[in-house]
Amino acid sequence: MPPITTPTANISDKHKLIGLDHLRAFAICYVVLFHYRQFGHPDWVNKVGDFGWTGVDLFFVLSGFLIAGQLFATIAKGADISMKEFFTKRFFRIIPPYLVMLCLYVGFPFLREREHMAPLWRYLTFTTNFGLDVSQTGTFTHSWSLCVEEQFYLILPLCILLVNYLKWGKKAAYLIFTWFLAGFVIRYLNWQVWMKPNLNSDHFGALFNEFIYYPTYNRLDALLAGVSVAGLYTFYPKIKDTINKRSNMIMLAGILLLIPAYFICTPQSTFSTTIWGYPLIAISYGLIVAAVVCPGNILYSVKSWLTSKIAILSYGIYLIHKLVIHLTQNLLEKAGADRNSSIVMFCCIISTIIGALALRYLIEKPSLRVRDKVLARYSKL
Predict the structure, then answer these.
(1) From start to end of 133-268, where are the E strands?
(2) Alpha-carbon gap, residue 354 to 285, rounded angstroms
């Protein structure tokens, strides 16, 4: 999209990514802080990182916004969506680093942060998030969110093609709203069937993750929030202009909404989180994303070398952080260090960044170069 020149002009991709980089960096830092509680850690990490699981929801909103935005932009231009091009881009961006991590976990068991892995076919088919019992499976469990995103990448373009075929046009907004409402019903039924009979179970937390937190059909709220923002900005420019004029207030509203969301979702494994927490978090982060991509927002043009680099490395950091933290703490403990100390935590952060850099330059960038060559061949056909 061209740079903004008037109040009704489109938002430029260049500036849009600047604002979203800050959110990506925040999201990955918050998620890593949350997961760090599973290892030796200073006491303060428990309080500061307790709500860090919502960083994944922010990633879902970002994915919904960016992926749907690309597809909607193609439709707005009157062009056909190329499924071949879409899936080629997703494959070379996601699969090679993921397979490298999977090979490390399978080939070198001492790298595993917990004792057991799920069956290999679960990781290869991106279905780990279904039936994942963390009381029995503790290794590479954070791949559950990648499963949700991969399933989303498969379903979204197919849904858009169906909507175009049926010529629903802007009526598709009702479909998104229906899915959002259906989420309440599905989560309520899951709670009644799986959680309510096990309220006194010693494994209640693991059951909550298995039947409520991980399954894709329970976690569509954040993805739908991102898709909704992308749809509004593509097909309803007047709404986009209105949001642009009030973007700072809207961002503040999103941040403030996270406060009641925190109390609703603390502790996490509750009925209130199941029914109200997820949609409220999705709306909160959706408002923030909608705001930061607007030229009128304070973060729109604020460049930061740090957040930019963290954003670029965010996928690698997410993939590798548990393995690296586990390995680093074991090595430092053998050297006499206290794994609960802040110094060890700092070392874990540095080693995680180094690991992510290795993934970036040894796997991700070469894969993206191959992707570009493949896409160039498609354009010549």
Answers:
(1) none
(2) 29
Please choose, from the candidates 150, 48, 43, 141, the residue with its C-alpha nearest in 3D space to the C-alpha of residue 101. 141
Here the tokens at position 366 are 């070469």
Q: Is 13 helix (H, G, I), strand (E, B) or coil?
A: helix
Strands (E), 133-269: none
DSSP letter (8 states) at residue 361: I
- pTM assigned to the model: 0.95
Evaluate whether 106 touches 128 at the Cβ level (below 8 Å): no
Report yes or no: 261 and 277 within 8 Å, Cβ to Cβ. Answer: yes
Q: Is the CB of residue 220 less than 8 Å from the CB of residue 179?
A: yes
In the block, residue with structure tokens 């990506």: 24
Sign, CA dihedral 321-324-330-336, equals negative
Task: Summarize pLDDT for 109-166 with one digit per residue, the tens.
Answer: 999 999 899 999 999 999 999 999 999 999 999 999 999 999 999 999 999 999 988 8
Cis amide prior to 215 (ω within 30 degrees): no
Mean pLDDT of 238-246: 96
Answer whether 265's CB lies under 8 Å from 273's CB: yes
